[in-house]
Amino acid sequence: MTDAQFEAAAERIRSGDRDGLRQIYDAYGEKIYRLFLSKVHHREDAEDLTSEFFLKLWEVAGEHRKGSGHRAWMGTIARNMAIDYLRHAAHETPVEDAGEHGELVETTTAEDTVIGEMNAAEILSFLSEDEQEIVRLHLAAELTFREIASVLKRPLGTVAWKYRNAISKLKKRAEEGSLS
Q: What share of the chain is helix, strand, coil (3-state, %, to 5)?
């Protein structure tokens, strides 16, 4: 979806036309879902967050500034929602989910986790949080490095450098046989 198409759809949302939201959902629903899934690692939670994202988009469509890059703007909203969700979830961890030293213990069953999701989380665990976030935004949300730089409020060169380093680390691990 081009910026002009997004602006037209956002204008329709502002006037109360649900077809504008439907157009944006059709163009970005799967990408937003994958972004949430890469952050929260549970299908149901990612689905809930995706629904909440589009409800929020309905409310805040009027806040988007024309010409400011709609993908980065939506990426920022989704990223902030995921962070808020994870913070909230961390505070609601039941006592029985804490290990003997207070660390979180995984309580989901294999049926709740798609093998590919588990592998992605496992693979990304070799990276720093910054690197994980950049890789997720680039691969799951399909944002450009420029858009990622805008979302994270970091220089474009830093984002590209961290992405290249992350990929290099993953390739090295794969060659060593540490990734499976």
A: 75, 0, 25
What is this structure's pTM?
0.58
What's the domain count of the chain?
Answer: 2
Residue that finishes a domain, picked among 48, 74, 107: 107
Quote the percentage of the chain above a pLDDT of 90.
14
Contacts with 13 (C-beta within 8 Å, 6 or more apart), sequence order = 20, 21, 24, 57, 58, 61, 62
Residues 43, 34: Cα–Cα separation, whole Å: 9
Residues 101 and 19 in one domain: yes
Could you tell me which of 25, 45, 27 has the C-alpha nearest to residue 36?
45
**Residue pLDDT, tens place only, 44-67:** 888 889 999 998 998 898 888 887
Find the domain containing 127 and state its range: 114-180
Looking at 51, 76, 107, the residue that finishes a domain is 107
Mean pLDDT of each 10-residue bin along the chain, 180 residues long: 90 90 92 87 87 90 82 88 82 44 38 41 78 83 83 86 84 69
9 and 88 within one domain: yes
